User: Which sequence fits this backbone?
């Protein structure tokens, strides 16, 4: 099937946006979903960049500072311990479950996510590219052994001391997430760009599309000929280039697309 190269008015006259997206999904051969914090706020996980979020109340601990300073590592763990409860309590919502269902039905190739909450996998998605890692695990930077994050945070809260690696004794134990100043995993990023270039339908969901290099993915997909759908609460820099833009609640919108898709079968 040739890729769609139309602009923001490229959908068929007389069809609602929801029905049009459902039709595109039904005919897509290489659809990709790209998700940001907006899909997880409906699971009770706050957007850390929003007013009052953790990132607005604490200074940033950069990766090199984490490596060099015991005081910085302690401050890092204090920040992470505060946010861990949100991840522990959170369950996948209808948006996560809908994307997992589309993958199971063969309609979605993969989910590329900026999120670190692990909710896509918990919802049943199998091919999930976590660009920024996962907050559900803690990793030793020396021997690469991983631990359950809840368990390690509980130890930190009990002792007030940064945990040491039980395998090698290293003090460089941090969440398996990408910190500021730390490089994204090259293999994951390469796969994400490859999927984006091959996509014939690219769904950008719940992302502000301003954090690079991830924000380049929908642009790369569009330039390669993909249809681009943006579903987000607020406007994004790529809205003018999208085929359809919906500023609507994500879970409800994805469920509506799914229902329209089922009706058309």
Assistant:
């Amino acid at each position: 099937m040739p890729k769609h190269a139309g602009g923001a008015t490229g959908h068929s006259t007389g069809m609602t946006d929801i029905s049009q997206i459902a039709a595109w999904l039904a005919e897509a051969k290489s659809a990709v979903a790209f998700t940001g914090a907006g899909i997880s706020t409906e699971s009770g996980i706050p957007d850390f960049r929003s007013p009052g979020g953790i990132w607005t109340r604490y200074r940033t601990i950069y990766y090199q500072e984490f490596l060099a300073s015991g005081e910085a590592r302690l401050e890092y763990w204090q920040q992470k311990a505060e946010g861990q409860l949100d991840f522990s309590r959170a369950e996948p919502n209808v948006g996560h479950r809908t994307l997992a269902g589309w993958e199971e039905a063969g309609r979605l190739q993969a989910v590329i996510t900026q999120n670190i909450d692990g909710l896509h996998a918990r919802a049943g998605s199998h091919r999930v590219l976590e660009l920024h890692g996962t907050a559900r695990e803690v990793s030793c930077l020396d021997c690469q052994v991983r631990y359950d994050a809840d368990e390690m945070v509980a130890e930190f809260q009990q002792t007030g001391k940064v945990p040491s690696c039980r395998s090698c004794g290293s003090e460089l134990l941090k969440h398996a997430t990408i910190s500021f100043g730390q490089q994204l995993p090259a293999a994951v990023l390469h796969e994400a760009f490859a999927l984006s270039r091959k996509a014939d339908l690219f769904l950008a969901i719940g992302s502000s599309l301003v954090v690079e290099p991830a924000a380049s993915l929908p642009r790369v997909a569009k330039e390669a000929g993909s249809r681009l759908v943006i579903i987000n609460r607020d406007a994004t820099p790529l809205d003018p280039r999208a085929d359809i833009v919906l500023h609507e609640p994500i879970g409800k919108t994805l469920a509506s697309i799914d229902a329209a898709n089922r009706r058309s079968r």
The longest helix spans residues 70-89. The mean pLDDT is 90. The chain has ten helices and nine strands. The beta strands are 31-35, 110-113, 128-130, 133-140, 146-148, 173-177, 201-205, 227-231, 244-246.
